C-alpha cells in the first residue's frame, strides 16, 4: 500500500531561481499580505505556537509596577530635565512633565488593551513598520543609556571615566571614535541575566529599583531642604527676569514636554510581558497605569526640587542634579551620591528595556516577517533566549562605538510614532470587524482627526501670536470635538473587549493621537531625517524578505512545523 505523500513546503528562499520568481510576484504578494490581519484566536494559538514552549506565567501586578518604575526612572530624567528647563521651559518644566505624563498615560491605556487581549490589528505591513521602529528605538536608547553609565559611574567614584576609560581611535569618524568597553560589558551582562529567568530578573529589578528610589527621594528631600521658592520666578541673570514661572511662554512648555517625554520611554515594556503575567486582565492595567502615575509624580517633584536649588538659566544641561551640588562648599558628597543613584537607575532602565525589546522581536518573529528562529522560547528558562541574545549583541555593538549625542538624536520620534499608531489601532479594532463591518467610516474618522491634529500643530508652531492664531486654534479644537462626537453617535462599536478595554471610547485614544501628533510637531528636522531613513530601510526589508517569508508561511498551511524545534515533545510546548 502506497504511503501518503507528505505535503511539500514552499520556500521563496530555497534557491536563487525561487527568490527571483518571488520578487517578480511581489505586487500580488503585497496586495495579499500587507493588509492581512491575525485574529485573536490565531494569535493566541497558531502564531504563538511558533515560539515552541510557553513563557512561564510568574508575574503579578507588583512585579509589573516594579518593571515600569525600573524602566522609566533611568538616565532620561537626569539628562533631559536640565536641557528642557534651561533652553525651553524654565521652572515650568514641572508642567512639561505633567503634559508628557498625561500623554504617556493615555498611550498606556491603549497599550494595555492590546497587551490583555493579544491581537494583531491594522494589517501586517503597518504592524511590521510600527514594530521595526519601536525595536530600533529600544536598541538606540539602550545603547545611549549604557554609554551614560560610564559617565555617571565616574561621578559616583570621582574619576573622569569618559576620559580615562574610553579609547579614542583616530581612524574612525567623529561620533563613532570613542570605544566604551564598560558600556559593552554592562549590556552583555544584563543580556545574560534576562536570558536566564524573567522572575529572577524581576527580583533583581525590584532590588535595584528600591535602591534607586531611595536615591530619588534623597534628591527630592535635598532640593526642598536647600532650595528656595524664589528660584521659581527669579533667574540668576536679572536681565532675563521677564517671564516669571513661564520665561519661554506656553509654547516653551510644550517643547519641553516633547523633550522630557524621553524620560517616560519604558512603560510600554510592561505590556510586552503579558504572556508571563498570571492574571493579565487585572495585573496589566494596574501595572501599566500605576507605574506611569507614580513616575509622573516623582518626575514633577524632582523637577521642582531642581528648580528650587538652581535658577533655570544656571542649570547644567548635561548633568543638572549632580552639577547643582558639585560646586557647593561642603556639599560635593551629595553630587557623588546622586551619581550612585543615577548609576542604579541606568541599570534598572537597561534591565527592563532589554526585557521589552526581546519580547517585541519575539512577537514580530511569530508572524514570519523576520526569521522565526527569533521567536523561539527556550523550554528550560521559558524566556525568548534567541531574541534576547541577538538584540543584546546588537545593542552592545552600537554602545561600543556610537557617541551619546548621536544616539539621543535618534530616539524620540519613532517612539511617538509607535504610540500614535497604537492609538489608531485601538480605535480601528473596536469599530471594525473584518468581513462583517464597513471600515470606511472608521478610516475616515481617523484620517480626519489626524488631519485636524496636524493643522492644529502647524498653526501652533508657525502662526504669529495674536487673535487670529487663537481663533484658528479654537476652530481646530471645536472641529475635533464635533468629529469625535459625530463618530461616537453614528458608528457603533463592533466588538467589546473580552477582558479589559480602554474606557470612554473614542475619547481617550483620540486624545492620545492628538497629543502624540502635537509632540511630533515639536521635534527638529534631524529627527525626521532619521525617521525617514529607518522607515525606508524597514520598507525595503519588508519588500525584499518579510512579505515573501510571510506568504510562504501562509501557503504552507495553518499548522506549525514543529520539526523546526528541537524540543517538540517538551511538556511546555503548545499543541495545535
UniProtKB/TrEMBL annotation:
Main location: membrane
A Pfam family it matches: AA_permease_C
Keyword Transmembrane helix applies: yes
Localisation per UniProt entry: Membrane
Residue ranges occupied by any Cationic amino acid transporter C-terminal domain in the UniProt entry: 500-550
Superkingdom: Eukaryota
UniProt entry keywords in alphabetical sequence: Membrane, Transmembrane, Transmembrane helix
Membrane topology: Multi-pass membrane protein
Keyword Chloroplast part of the UniProt annotation: no
GO cellular component, one term: plasma membrane
Entry GO MF terms: amino acid transmembrane transporter activity
Residue ranges of the TM segments: 64-81, 88-109, 175-195, 202-225, 245-265, 286-310, 330-351, 406-428, 440-459, 471-491, 503-521, 528-545
PANTHER family: CATIONIC AMINO ACID TRANSPORTER 7, CHLOROPLASTIC (PTHR43243:SF41), INNER MEMBRANE TRANSPORTER YGJI-RELATED (PTHR43243)
Family label: Belongs to the amino acid-polyamine-organocation (APC) superfamily. Cationic amino acid transporter (CAT) (TC 2.A.3.3) family.
Name of the protein this chain belongs to: Cationic amino acid transporter 7, chloroplastic-like isoform X3
Species in which this protein is naturally found: Dioscorea cayennensis subsp. rotundata (White Guinea yam)
Gene of this entry: LOC120270893
